[in-house]
Amino acid sequence: MAAPMLRLFSRGWWFGAPSLSGVLPLGLRKAHSDVRGLLAAQSARGLFKDFFPERGTKIELPELFDRRTSGNFPQTIYCGFDPTADSLHVGHLLALLGLFHFQRAGHNVIALVGSATARLGDPSGRTKEREALDAERVKGNARALRRGLEALAANHQQLFNDGRSWGSFTVLDNSAWYQKQHLVDFLAAVGGHFRMGTLLSRLSVQARLKSPEGMSLTEFFYQVLQAYDFYHLFQRYGCRVQLGGSDQLGNIMSGYEFINKLDNRAEYKLMRKQIIPTTKSEKNVILIVPYHHNRLELINTFIALSQRYLKLFTFLPLPEIDHLMQLHIKEPEKRVPQKRLASEVTKLVHGQDGLDSAKRCTQALYHNSIDALEVMSDQELKELFREASFSELVLDPGTNVLDTCRKANAIPDGPRGYRMITEGGVSINHRQVTNPESVLVVGQHILKNGLSLLKIGKRNFYIIKWLQL
Ligand SMILES: Nc1ncnc2c1ncn2[C@@H]1O[C@H](COP(=O)(O)OP(=O)(O)OP(=O)(O)O)[C@@H](O)[C@H]1O
Ligand SMILES: N[C@@H](Cc1ccc(O)cc1)C(=O)O
User: Fold this and answer.
1) What percentage of residues in the chain have a pLDDT greater than 70?
2) How much is the average pLDDT of 422-431?
3) Which ligand is nearest to the CA of 130?
4) Atom of ligand 2 nearest to the CA of 84
5) Where does the secretion signal sit in this chain (predicted)?
6) What is the average per-residue pLDDT within 428-457?
7) Whether the CB of 86 sits within 6 Å of ligand 1
8) Which range, of 167-176, 315-324, 358-367, 437-446, averages the lowest pLDDT?
9) How far away, in angstroms, is 226 Cα from ligand 2 center?
């Protein structure tokens, strides 16, 4: 008899509020309340949408997550991330939050960096074969991804602890088991368990076979590797649940079938659906790896996003989210839920320091705060005014407003530049300066941190770092 499995897709944000009975399979409804609590809470937040398989399971999924069912607790759940780029993005964050929710409920979770799979390239959800990545590039990306995953897990642990005893968070890399694998041995041992008809029937394969470009053997083989990963994690760590976006359904099914052929113990999976359609477009990807992304960009994006994302991207209890929404109805201009969303996500991604820094940037940018500007480091200022040009100038005695603007190449030479100042188009440190001959004063035009922020017109910023002060 086929072993039980589960698929849980997250609800897309465009589908409306999830209703429990509509989302969860029959088994869950008869489960006892504790179990119901964990999956129901996740579904109520809109994190998961569907289960795989839906029927014919020997053990119902809820038992798998039940603290009180002996032998079943804790479970190990994994999700894979291919290092095809050197940054995590918001789609990954969603997958990670899925893992974090299980971790918070006491289960052990594995974030798998797919250094081996990234070399092949997952064809799922793609219309064209991706550019092949060489081993060095994948290695660099994998290091960056691992750092990002570990940083997020550490922020989660330090800043979102709720006093319960959590499961472990482990980062693994599938190159660890493929490096040692001999190709012929692998094909001989594994290949026979995969049937061509089944592999060919996967939607991701079908779509690519019909495309003008077709599909390479390398890409076709991808699902075998992901299936084997699942098997390996099942054998080695007892991992019975895999989490993935809806594009991962075919790969997860292959893993499920493969494990069942080799081992007929109960097997389960969870799946999550992609909920941010724009994330797949390269232009719209919001990079979140801590060391080379723009915190302000992240905070602004979350301010602009729908309130629904509070449920998806934060750990705030639902009643608290309802309360924030009530506040929003009374005073929408305060944008309370959006600000809270931005700060919760920034805290998770960048830690408390990152959040404080993003708040200083917001103060300096939107509230023209000189105090905030004064305590900002060069790095923060550069990040804040990413579009701004940055120059280092020597402060000669008697340097005036006109000299400063010219040396920073902020105004044109000649009378036109001069007039831009007299006509009020120039400000230094958020204060308008209309006299081109005014000599710069430390403490007014030059901040305590040795910086000046020059603004020309409405949005052209120039940061000047004064040397030899
Ligand atoms: N926008 C998204 N919404 C929800 N889940 C996502 C999103 N983007 C990726 N995921 C999920 O995150 C996990 C890791 O994805 P993966 O590393 O393959 O990223 P990707 O964006 O699909 O990039 P690529 O295919 O170019 O490597 C997968 O389970 C994937 O389905
Ligand atoms: N195929 C997944 C990443 C992944 C890699 C290896 C796995 O074992 C699982 C998942 C994706 O592209 O989104």
Assistant:
1) 75
2) 93
3) 1
4) 12
5) none
6) 91
7) no
8) 358-367
9) 6
**All domains in the chain, ordered by first residue:** 13-281 (3.40.50.620), 295-367 (1.10.240.10), 386-467 (3.10.290.10)
Three-state helix/strand/coil letters over 114-153: CHHHHHHCCCCCCCCCCCCCCHHHHHHHHHHHHHHHHHHH
**H or E, element range at 441:** none
Check pocket membership of 46 for ligand 1, CB cut-off 6 A.
no
| H runs (alpha helix) in 314-335 | 318-330
Q: Going by CA atoms, what residue is nearest to atom 10 of ligand 2?
A: 80
Q: Dig out the tokens for 183 from the structure.
A: 């190709």
ipTM for the predicted complex:
0.92
Distance CA 33, CA 208 (A): 44
122 in ligand 1 pocket by Cβ < 6 Å?
yes
- 8 residue type, one letter: L
CA 99 – CA 107 distance, rounded (Å): 9
Nearest atom, ligand 1, residue 92 CA: 12
Counting ligand 2 atoms within 8 A of each CB, the residue from 119, 231, 248, 254 with the most, and so the one to mutate, is 248
Name the residue with tokens 């700060």: 343
Ligand 1 atom 2 nearest Cα: 91
pLDDT digits (tens, 9 = 90+) for 312-336: 899 999 899 989 888 888 887 788 8
Query: Over the stretch 367-395, which tens digit does the pLDDT of each residue have?
Result: 677 777 787 777 777 676 666 788 899 99
C-alpha to C-alpha distance for 312 and 13, rounded to whole angstroms: 9
The residue whose C-alpha atom lies closest to atom 14 belonging to ligand 1 is 81
Q: Would the pLDDT of 58 be above 70?
A: no
Q: Could you give the angle at the alpha carbon of 93 between the alpha carbons of 377 and 109, nearest 5°?
A: 120
Residue 346 to residue 353: CA distance in whole angstroms: 10
Q: Decide whether any atom of ligand 2 lies within 6 Å of the 114 Cβ.
A: yes
Token pair belonging to 274: 């992609």
Mean pLDDT of 333-346: 86
3-state SS, residue 79? strand
**pLDDT over 50 (residue 56):** no
Q: Is the pLDDT of residue 76 over 50?
A: yes
pLDDT in tens, 400-417: 999 999 999 999 999 999
Q: State the ligand closest to the CA atom of 94.
A: 1
For the chain, give the percent of residues with pLDDT over 90. 38
